[in-house]
Amino acid sequence: MLPDIITMIPIYIMGRKYRVPQGLTILKAMEFAGYTLKRGCGCRGGVCGACVTMYRLKDNYRLNVGLACQTVIESHMYLMQLPFIPAHKAIYTIKNVRANDSDITRFYPELMRCLQCNTCTKSCPMELDVMGYVAAAMRGDLERVVELSMECVMCGMCAARCPADLSPFNIALLIRRMYGRYFIAPSPQLEKRLNEISGGEFRQEIGRLKKASEAELMERFKNFQSTKGEAAVELARGKE
Amino acid sequence: MAYPPEMQESLKRVEASRNSRLGGNFPKLTLAEKAAVLETYHPDFRADEKREIRVGPNKGGIAPRELVDLLESPSRLDPGAIDLTKVAHKTDVLVIGSGGAGVTAALTAQENGAEVLLTTKLRLGDSNTIMAEGGIAAATLPEDSPVIHYVDTMVGGRGKNIPELVEALVNDAPFIVEWLTSLGVNFDRLSDGAYYAHMPAGHSRRRSHSVKDITGLEFMRVLCDEVRNREIDVLEFSPAVELILDDRGQCAGAVFFNFDTEEYFPVEAKATILATGGMGRLHPQGFPTSNHYGATADGLVMAYRAGAQLLYIDFVQYHPTGVAWPEQMLGLLVSEAVRAQGAQVVNVDGEMFVDRLETRDALSAAIIRECGERRKGVLTPTGMVGTWLDTPLVDMMGGEGTFMRRFAGIQGRLKKYGIDPIREPILIYPTQHYQNGGVQVNVNGETDIPNLYAAGEVAGGVHGHNRLGANSLVDIFVFGRRSGMHAAQKVRGIEIEKLSLEHVRAYGEALRKAAITPRTSSPMLLPDYRFERALSTVQHVK
User: Fold this and answer.
1) Pick from B143, B193, B212: which is nearest to A186 by CB?
2) What's the pLDDT score for residue B170?
3) What angle in degrees, to the nearest 10, is found between the helix axes of B471-490 and B215-229?
4) Residues B378 and B388: beta-carbon distance below 8 Å
5) Hey, is B478 helix, strand or coil?
6) Given an 8 Å threshold on Cβ–Cβ distance, is A43 in contact with B293?
7) DSSP state of B352
8) Which of B376, B329, B339 is nearest to B470 (CA)?
9) Do A180 and B185 touch (CB under 8 A)?
């Protein structure tokens, strides 16, 4: 039984009319209508990009885009999910990639076809500046691409709507991987730690702790919790 | 759709007390206090919500009722209706599930020379991993060491963790950070290249490595791209429904269901790696969940029917900071890192009632106590209840811009509902978050069934009774790699005999003998949210 307070509104799922409770997200409205979603539903939390949906509102010509799990329905919403987009993705071996603009266009030569029409930006459900990062990619400004594309959920809608047939989300992915692998200085501290572990530096101590009583573990834990600063570095080296 | 009028009164009190709380802490629970609050208020300790399992390897043990219903159900597959002599695919290593553990197992097995088939119920990458916000635990800083990570993990797990698994976890963890970096993951860094790490509750050192608050998304984007680049065979929209054994009782593959054509088809494999994740979407004890749509315990059900022992399966983790308002975001997670950055947990009157850095179990129990017995929770118009996570403190402590720099994802999602966590607190209530136990494994990811591996949330033991934050993102990679490597090396010597589903038939027989009236068939594959079920109800609050 539905509570009395709920107001029902009409929506159109791929053209068919359903009356559903106001206030639901598109995803829950489709489920309320009786759909068992196999495609078009993933994390239900706005990060996986599975449920991207195109919709139009009454008396409005504009096609809007939103994630079904994040977008609240409105009366007379006409909607369709686009759970799969056959976008182009280049195949490459990351360790053989050279991190420069010539390698970006080697893998995605169509990048230079961008018309700067801004359709990609207008069709991004995450409201990213897609055209901004495509332009940065054309300039070879990798850092800017990383910054502007970081929240991309890979739904592919930018590729679906691009009149020049670019796959902006896949281009950005290549560039983020280039940047993460080649442009950030390595951490000497991590190197040092890996060598210590490979050299067996902690083996004996952990071996002993594996047989330790719960009380001893708790004692050690309290000691670790209360030691800060230089003393903590000493302690980590096994000097208690 | 910002906070409704009935919640505004409480908001004012939170604002009024904020300055006096700044920089302050509620006293940490003593060990005895912690034990008492857990025992009285933590959902895990509510015996009436758990039920004895009457068949199978864990017969006599207990588990959440919702899981037992599935374990005590016959297979959705009629074993007689499948022709096992006609397999659709034959491979060395079959990986079931494509979250962090599955994808890592597939990449590693292929690197080690095996032919791999990666299968998934939904899309490649669909998983809880992709939703992970906070970070990955690894002892990389000078003041940290695998020894300290070991002790923290054991204490957090209430001493029940399997020591060998924890040893593997803490020693491999820094190598995982390096591996992910080499694949092109953009970890948060300081200007000199050093990794930025924060300290989630229960850890003694800063060791959680993050990518803003979209750590899991960044990992999965990169790893799935790598799977595509290596041209590993991927079968999407194909959930596994039962494991296949051979005449000698070795695991020899699985039967799958094609979601599009609704056909069942068998796959033969020399080694099978189960990486199907947890049980959040069963909504244990009626709680909301932070989990992915596909987290329906399929792997537990399949492995159990094939004879694998489950360990600590009665221990479920409730994350203290699930969203309680707006309704549309019910159960979604607010990263623990928000508390690490200074956000306090306060009641309807704007008073602190618990230290913000208590472990997940104790903090959840304290919030349930505050909202329940103490009646200091905030009521929402939909009948939900919660306490405040006072997020404006993040910028007050860390300087303006800190919240946006670290938690743009959460901010963006709440903004759509007219709530700005930079200026207003977030209403929170515990949400089902993690299955602490699972299929019993050794350090290679091997289960009791020959040639069957389990990795990630579906496996149990490494986290004991309670997982620490940031230890899951490392667990999936450590044991994904270990099982992928071991399986790839072992397949060279494996001979598969005649394929059989006799265990499925025998399990059905055992259910009948025990006079169990099944409530459903299993595995579940997808939760049913159709019709009125689409309107969330939170049973335990009533």
Assistant:
1) B193
2) 98
3) 20
4) yes
5) helix
6) yes
7) B
8) B339
9) yes
Q: What is the ipTM of this complex?
A: 0.97
Query: Touching check for A117 and chain B: CB below 8 Å?
Result: no
Distance CA(B406)–CA(A99), nearest Å, equals: 27
For chain B positions 61-120, those within 8 Å of chain A (CB to CB) are none
- The token duo for A213 is 């009583």
Is residue B299 helix, strand or coil? helix
Residue B541 has pLDDT above 70, yes or no: no
CATH topology for the A94-183 domain:
Fumarate Reductase Iron-sulfur Protein; Chain B, domain 2 (1.10.1060)
DSSP string, B407-425: HHHHHHHHHTTT--TTTS-
CB contact B262 to A (< 8 Å)? no
Read off the pLDDT of each residue in A160-184 and give the average, rounded to a whole number: 96
A171 contacts on B by Cβ (under 8 Å) = none
What residue ranges do the domains of chain A occupy? 8-81, 94-183, 188-231
Question: Do A202 and B171 lie within an 8 Å CB cutoff?
Answer: yes
**Backbone phi, psi, residue B339, to 5°:** -70, -40
- pLDDT, tens digit (0-9, with 9 covering 90-100), for B185-198: 999 999 888 999 99
Residues of B annotated as catalytic (active site), given as ranges: 319, 339
C-alpha A132/C-alpha B283 separation (Å) is: 42
Q: Is A35 on the interface with B (CB under 8 A)?
A: yes
Under an 8 A CB cutoff, do B131 and A43 touch? yes
Contact check, Cβ <8 Å, B293/A41: yes
B5-41+318-432: CATH number? 3.90.700.10
CATH superfamily of B79-315+436-504: FAD/NAD(P)-binding domain (3.50.50.60)
Q: What is the CATH number of domain A8-81?
A: 3.10.20.740
Write out residues 122-181 of A within 8 Å (CB-CB) of B.
126-127, 146, 150-154, 173, 176-181
**CA nearest to B142 within chain A:** A233
B216 closest CA partner among A185, A48, A117, A85: A48
Mean pLDDT over the full length of chain A: 94
A47 with B145: Cβ contact below 8 A: no
pLDDT (tens digit, 9 = 90+) per residue, B112-127? 999 999 999 999 999 9
Long-range contacts of A35-38 (CB under 8 A, 24+ apart): A35/B530, A36/B526, A36/B528, A36/B530, A37/B293, A37/B526, A38/B122, A38/B237, A38/B259, A38/B526
Enter the tokens of residue B187: 């970890």
Per the CB < 8 Å rule, is B535 touching A205?
no
Could you state, in order of their start, the residue ranges of all structural domains in chain B? Answer: 5-41+318-432, 79-315+436-504
What rounded mean pLDDT belongs to chain B? 95
Q: Which of A1-15, A222-236, B23-37 has the lowest mean pLDDT?
A: A1-15
**B 283-322: CB under 8 A from A:** 290, 292-294
Q: Residue B368's closest CA among B94, B55, B42, B5?
A: B42
> Which site among A25, A26, A43 would you substitute to test the B interface, given the most B Cβ atoms closer than 10 Å to its Cβ?
A43
Assign residue B96 a region (left: φ > 0; alpha: ψ between -120 and 50; beta: otherwise).
beta
With the C-alpha atoms ordered A154, A66, B322, B436, is the resulting torsion angle positive or negative? negative
CB B426 within 8 A of CB B326: no
